[in-house]
């Protein structure tokens, strides 16, 4: 019989989730199904790497294993230990052969029996400050601003490799690391990574909902969040038109401000003042 502590733990883990996970509708599922999803999510490495073909993270993969009978061996960074743990949770019969973990491009570490861990490092002299890697990081481990050198906090990096593809100058390298983690240390780290990812999702959701934010949506997770937020907010046609109009006005304003900073022009200043008034009325 499931203990009260276990029930409470499952309840806490699967409530107040970021809006990205609303489509999973987890809180409406039977308690035993929620428990399985929670336990699988807890044993996943929480790198949010998308190598399991779930770009929105570990929890959707855990749900798909339980609800859609998706193969339980697709967690690449977790390797065979995680595959074996999930097989036990979903109660693979003793007569069934446990699946082999999805292969990794990195060699298997002899101690952990998982693929060798990697961390991303920016060659700072080659960085052009394009900012494209920043939104790709699921745990906000990259800092930097436009046209300035970026830095990756190695201690926060999950090794998900998601920052590699967006980099237009190929200035991000992956370096292998060696370490030994106890079971309790790994559990603590995974929970920290999960919380950082959820914090990232909530921050991005707030940015997308901010009408003054003109930064473009550039990652798949941001696109999904944008869709989820739009559906939940039930934006009216008038609001949508105003949002588009405001974005166009801000673009024109920025262009004029840049031109005027180089060379004063009376007619352009008048145009700028008129656009700013129009924007304030939206």
Automatic annotation (TrEMBL):
Keywords: 4Fe-4S, Cell inner membrane, Cell membrane, Electron transport, Iron, Iron-sulfur, Membrane, Metal-binding, Repeat, Translocase, Transport. The keyword ATP-binding does not apply. InterPro entries: 4Fe-4S_dom, 4Fe4S_Fe-S-bd, 4Fe4S_Fe_S_CS, Elect_transpt_cplx_RnfB/RsxB, RnfB_subfamily. PROSITE patterns: 4FE4S, 4FE4S_FER_1, 4FE4S_FER_2. Gene3D superfamilies: 3.30.70.20, Electron transport complex subunit B, putative Fe-S cluster. Residues 118-147, 148-177 form the 4Fe-4S ferredoxin-type domain. It holds the Pfam family Fer4_21. This is Electron transport complex protein RnfB. It comes from Psychrobacter immobilis.
